[in-house]
Amino acid sequence: MDSGLCLTELAALFLSLIGYICCLVALFIPRWLIVSSGMLVNESYQLGLWQTCAIQDVGSRVCQDFQTILDLPLQIQLGRVLMCLSVSCGVLGFMVSTPALTCLKCLDDQDKYVRKIAIMIGGGLFLLAGASSTCFVSYFAYDAFVKFWNLPKDIPRFEYGSAMFSGWTGGLFLIAGGSVLIVSHFYSGQGETSPVGSNATTINLESV
């Protein structure tokens, strides 16, 4: 067993796990956008992908789910799709790549090709998950930035919430984990000797 490759795979999965948790948190917490506290002193509002919340200084919190999908803004609908896609691809990435880890004995040594393909697919799923999260959060941030500066000064304006930064962080960690996973196996196979070539050499030596 290649200990260096094993540690690299574990590091890649650890990065992907951190990214997956961050994306999962960003998907569900209602803190994508918040109203600046300087405009509303006694009350603040938070916007998420699934609900909105009103929070008062005394500590009371009232949240309300969105009633219908058809009345949702485009960015909220797009966010649900892409963030759910990110979380789903992350789960599939772990399901595909974990049994193929070099540290585990789920596959025999003769199944190196299957192991490599599974790792590549898992890494690709992590990359897709990270790209989905990063692209949506960037679009959502740009949309909020444009609206922030286009509204009159006397109208409360939303600012970035912690869920957006969690989504950004998760996307980058997933991209990093998927990249490390793919690159490690891509370069590990460069120095391997082809079984066909080895058999041919053995046959030629035996025939002499």
TrEMBL record:
This is Claudin. It is found in: Cell junction, Tight junction; Cell membrane. It holds the Pfam family PMP22_Claudin. GO terms for cellular component: bicellular tight junction; plasma membrane. Keywords: Cell junction, Cell membrane, Membrane, Tight junction, Transmembrane, Transmembrane helix. InterPro entries: Claudin, PMP22/EMP/MP20/Claudin. One of its GO terms (molecular function) is structural molecule activity. The chain crosses the membrane at residues 12-34, 78-96, 117-142, 162-183. The lineage of its organism: Eukaryota, Metazoa, Chordata, Craniata, Vertebrata. Belongs to the claudin family. Coiled coil: none annotated. Its main location: other. It is a multi-pass membrane protein. The keyword Disulfide bond does not apply.
